[in-house]
Specification:
With 336 residues, the protein is mostly helical. It is 74% helix and 0% strand. Helix 1 runs antiparallel to helix 2 and helix 5 packs parallel to helix 8.
Length: 336
């Protein structure tokens, strides 16, 4: 069976399931609409579990037969929506939270890999590029930030002050710094996300700006020779914090995409649909910012810890984050 025959045979099943899921997510108002067409939701005998299993089988067939990518993505999206409805938690907050982090969040990030990849490129590209550029031309740091700020960072990571890693603080101020890091990190994430409402321009600016600024500081301190103090400090929380910034950018770009390319939808409808996806990403990113702040306040600042242990923990956390987004929550694939 070729692709065209496959689509013709199963198109009605897919459309019916799609309409049913949309009405489940957005129930109609109680006020009846005059001359409104009948809706699948009104069919009390609609067998959703059977239809969901059918579409899972169709997705598996489409993959095995190497049908076109647009068809596979269409079926993947339908299976993802069906899975979320099929396994939707009922009235248990803890269950909902566990389900979000063990399926919804990583699955949504994989589903939106294009905007995630674009946001990562816009953020990590300038960051890495600036680190390299400053090793070649150290004076570039002053094109990004002023001299007072540069001296402040030098003072924070000076090996001669190794007992006071990071910002100026008293020995018993870990909790206060934890609150500061939460406010600072979530502020960066929220601005990057909300910038998407400016047709994505705000998100683009904050991704580039933060990438350049972080890369400039890292490059300058590396050039100064503050390797162990700086990289030892940031290695622990960098996986959570930097990934969360990129994900905040992906969520913002998703909002901007709705405004720039709404397709056949109105901009308001496209924004509402994309915001539903973006909010899932930003909820997960906010949690990662919280974890990063905790690590930064209570682990990264420990001056007496051997730097090799800090590097080891940092590498482990990067592998953990990458593995989480690659493998966790692949229940739909098992279902096919």
């Amino acid at each position: 069976m070729n692709q065209e025959q496959f689509i013709q045979r199963h198109e009605k099943t897919w459309e019916r399931l799609k309409q049913w899921l949309e009405l489940k997510e957005n129930p109609p108002t109680k006020r009846p609409v005059k001359n409104a067409p009948p809706r699948p939701e009104a069919e009390k005998n609609y067998d959703f579990p059977h239809a969901y299993r059918q579409v899972c089988q169709h997705l598996a067939l489409a993959r095995s037969r190497l049908y076109s990518q647009p068809l596979i993505e269409r079926l993947s999206q339908l299976v993802l929506q069906g899975h979320q409805q099929f396994y939707k938690p009922r009235g248990n907050l803890l269950h909902q939270i566990i389900h979000f982090f063990t399926f919804d969040f990583p699955a949504t990030v994989r589903q939106e890999w294009r905007v995630v990849a674009l946001a990562s490129l816009l953020f990590f590209g300038p960051l890495i590029g600036m680190i390299i550029a400053i090793q070649i031309n150290p004076d570039l740091i002053y094109s990004i930030t002023d001299g007072d700020t540069v001296r402040q960072f030098q003072d924070m990571y000076d090996p001669e002050r190794y007992d006071r890693l990071g910002r100026e603080r008293e020995a018993d101020s870990d909790i206060l710094m934890f609150g500061f890091y939460i406010r600072n990190n979530t502020g960066i994430g929220f601005r990057t996300f909300a910038g998407g409402l400016l047709f994505g321009v705000g998100t683009l600016f904050f991704l580039l700006f933060n990438g350049l600024q972080i890369g400039a500081v890292a490059g300058h301190l590396t050039h100064m020779g503050f390797i162990e103090t700086f990289w030892g400090f940031v290695s622990g929380h960098s996986a959570m914090e930097l990934t969360a910034i990129a994900l905040s950018g992906a969520a913002g770009l998703k909002l901007g995409q709705a405004l720039i390319r709404p397709g056949r939808k109105s901009r308001l409808r496209a924004l509402r649909d994309n915001a539903r996806i973006a909010v899932k990403i930003i909820y997960g990113a906010a949690t990662m910012f919280f974890i990063a702040a905790f690590i930064e306040a209570f682990w990264s600042s420990i001056a007496g810890m051997p730097v090799n242990i800090k590097y080891g923990v940092g590498i482990f956390l990067w592998l953990l984050v990458i593995g989480y987004f690659l493998y966790v929550g692949r229940g739909t694939r098992h279902a096919t």
